[in-house]
Specification:
Helix 2 (38-55) crosses helix 11 (302-320), helix 5 (142-155) runs parallel beside helix 6 and helix 11 (302-320) crosses helix 12. The chain has two domains: 5-140 and 280-353, Response regulator (Rossmann fold); 143-272 and 360-382, Rossmann fold, CATH 3.40.50.2300. It has 387 residues and is an alpha/beta fold. The protein has helices at residues 5-21, 38-55, 76-88, 101-114, 142-155, 169-184, 203-212, 225-236, 258-261, 281-294, 302-320, 327-334, and strands at residues 25-31, 58-59, 62-70, 94-97, 118-120, 135-137, 160-166, 188-195, 216-220, 245-249, 269-272, 338-341, 344-348, 355-367, 370-382. 41% of the residues lie in helices and 24% in strands. Strand 2 and strand 3 (62-70) form a beta hairpin. The chain is globular and about 65 Å long. Bound molecules: P-hydroxybenzoic acid (PHB). The site of P-hydroxybenzoic acid has 10 residues, from loops.
Length: 387
């Protein structure tokens, strides 16, 4: 056919019109952005924004809009109401975020009813993904990161352990998974305590630990301020001096709060899926993009990585579906999805829709004046042992 500028012009106008006529791709980011867990929302959303800045925010012709919603949590009822509002009023294509397990659990029925893909970027109790066929998790599970610590501790001369966990589903999961592998390796859990999720006061628990004289205390506390408070009490009551070690999931030495713990954290061994000190081109690109997108000069933590990877997963779904997002087809893409994450390669298990990944053993060290979680051993291909 001969080149006809009129037809070509019309085609151009039409295709431009088609792109503009597409609605924005809306993603609800449901997480605490205020209150004691405000950092969860900031990290998750920061990771998503960093991904969009780095890769472009138009996917399959649709401009991505993040609709952030503050649960002020832990507040499951608020999270549920915000998810309903996101579906009915904002007409979002995806439900995303979820820093806290109780909030993810409360939203699961909304995802099922509305057939909306729900991308969990942190909430880490095993049960979460079982609560709706529309959930996929890109973060971790507490048993996945706690079981390797039980194995490692038993192999490394630790015999008697006192466990301390937050008293809600992730803490219960962590306590059980640690105990299973630690006792299988010949270790003994001499006492187990659970601390309130809201406003815990650690001093009396720390005194009990000191009196019990264990080799080590195994700790799971939700990332952030609680870890700082626990370590402060641990120092003040002289447990380190009494020869009691701290072993924990990496929530305790979360890269964003690690500088606030200072020297008290040095030498602490943790198991986890992400460290800001992970040496890979993907991680360097992530750290750089996060700083540029948020202006935060500190270290982003695992929740920011959850936001980044969750955004990558959403982008893959939208691309493969040619911009037409449908809940069931989205889940087909998510099942078995592989991503080159800043933490290393991850896969979404097609059966459970949960993440499969390497769990690293790390030691807190001061490197060039900075506190870092330095990886020195690994447990590859870990799935959630809780399911
Ligand atoms: C959770 O509520 O699932 C949760 C919160 C903070 C963490 C880990 C898990 O650090």
């Amino acid at each position: 056919m001969k080149w006809n500028p009129l037809v070509a012009g019309a085609a151009l106008v039409l295709s431009t019109f088609a792109v503009h006529a597409q609605d924005a791709l809306k993603i609800a980011v449901i997480a605490p952005f205020s209150g004691p867990f405000a950092d969860y929302g900031r990290q998750i959303e920061g990771g998503m924004r960093a991904w969009l800045q780095q890769h472009g925010d138009v996917i399959a012709g649709r401009k991505v809009v993040l609709v952030s919603k503050d649960t002020t949590g832990p507040a499951p009822e608020v999270a549920k109401r915000l998810a309903q509002e996101a579906v009915v009023r904002d007409k979002v294509d995806f439900l995303a975020g979820f820093g806290l397990t109780p909030e993810a659990l409360a939203v699961a029925p909304v995802a099922t009813q509305a057939k909306k893909p729900m991308i969990v970027m942190n909430a880490a109790s095993s049960i979460v993904t079982a609560k709706s066929p529309y959930i996929a998790r890109v973060s971790m599970t507490l048993p996945q990161v706690s079981a390797p610590m039980g194995t490692w501790a038993a192999k490394n001369g630790i015999r008697r352990v006192f466990t301390l966990v937050a008293d809600y589903a992730p803490g219960h999961d962590s306590e059980a998974a640690f105990k299973t592998t630690f006792t299988a390796g010949g270790g003994q859990v001499i006492e187990a305590v659970r601390t309130p999720l809201k406003n815990p006061e650690f001093s009396p628990f720390v005194q009990r630990i000191k009196d019990a004289k264990p080799d080590a205390v195994f700790v799971f506390l939700p990332a952030g301020e609680q870890g700082i408070a626990f370590m402060k009490s641990f120092q003040e009551r002289g447990l380190a001096k009494a020869g009691i070690r701290v072993i924990a999931t990496g929530d305790l030495t979360d890269d964003h709060v690690l500088p606030a713990m200072g020297d008290a954290a040095v030498g602490m061994i943790t198991t986890f899926h992400y460290s800001a000190a992970h040496d890979s081109p993907e991680n360097r690109a992530f750290l750089d993009a996060y700083r540029k997108a948020t202006g935060d000069q500190g270290q982003p933590n695992f929740m920011a990585v959850g936001g980044w990877d969750g955004m990558a997963a959403i982008a893959e779904v939208v691309k493969r579906l040619g911009g037409q997002v449908d809940g069931d087809r989205a889940m087909t893409v998510l099942k078995g999805l592989k991503l080159a994450s800043p933490r290393g390669a991850i896969t979404i298990d097609p059966e459970t829709r949960d993440v499969v990944q390497t769990v690293y053993v790390r030691r807190v060290e001061k490197v060039g004046g900075q506190y870092r979680n330095v990886e020195f051993d690994r447990f590859p291909d870990q799935r959630d042992p809780g399911r």
